[in-house]
Amino acid sequence: MPCDVSPAAQTVELPKGWTLALTPTLNVTSLTLRDADECPREHGFHPGPLPSALADRQHVRRLTDIGDRELRASAEQLVIRHLERVATAQANADAFGAQFPDLVPLLAGLACEVPGCQDRMDIDPDQLTVRLSLATDAAGSGALLELVNFWLGPQGLKNTTDGLSMEFDGPSRGLAVTLDQVHAAGFLSWLRERGA
């Protein structure tokens, strides 16, 4: 029988060096998961004020230090949600990387074809998927626009849908194109086939 290795099936602990800030806000308790650098990473709320045994604002290093069972359960759910989001984002990034082991040469070829083209990949914080951004100044905006238009097919830019956005900066005449994971995969596959 396979064992469940999902974050929810494991003992819930804060990641090493992380803290959980418990802050009373009106009649709820705000929960903020902070990383080792004290940057907020995940937020949640627990109905009701902080228990009287806790200070006005409490920083917790171990969830077992939260004596109130219901408050601790809310804190555990916040940690589980964060771990699941990270796992989902990592799985999407891994799948994209496996689909494009030739990503660096593909983007290098694009930079040769589109003057001044800069690429940036990150994770969409809402969708937890890969996002590819391409930007160029006036010298390359026409070439980038033409490539995207040609990739979209016979209807060209009339085919734009959710997951593809374009911003033209009038004063600098630069162009920025952002593609979600599905569109980025389509565009890069097209570039690969076109270059073959």
Can you offer a commentary on this structure?
The structure is a single chain. With 196 residues, this protein is an alpha+beta fold. It has helices spanning 69-99, 103-113, 138-152, 181-195, and strands at 19-25, 28-34, 40-47, 58-60, 118-123, 130-136, 164-169, 174-180. It has a four-stranded antiparallel β-sheet with strand order 3-2-1-4, covered by helices on one side. Strand 5 (118-123) and strand 6 form a beta hairpin.
Summarize the structure.
It is built from 4 helices and 8 strands; from the N terminus they run ββββααββαββα.
Low-confidence sequence ranges: 1-9
User: Which of globular, elongated, flat, extended, rod-shaped describes the shape?
Assistant: elongated
Describe the largest sheet. 4 strands, antiparallel
| Class derived from helix and strand content | alpha+beta
Q: Calculate the terminal CA-CA distance, rounded to whole Å.
A: 46 Å
**Largest sheet strand order:** 3-2-1-4
The number of strands is: 8
How much helicity do the residues have? 25-40%
> How big is the Rg?
23 Å
User: Strand portion, in percent?
Assistant: 25-35%
Q: What is the mean predicted local confidence, pLDDT? A: 88
Short descriptors:
4 helices; 196 residues; 8 strands; disordered N terminus; single chain; elongated; alpha+beta
List the helices and strands and how they pair.
Elements: E1 19-25, E2 28-34, E3 40-47, E4 58-60, H1 69-99, H2 103-113, E5 118-123, E6 130-136, H3 138-152, E7 164-169, E8 174-180, H4 181-195
Antiparallel strand pairs: 1-2, 1-4, 2-3, 5-6, 6-8, 7-8
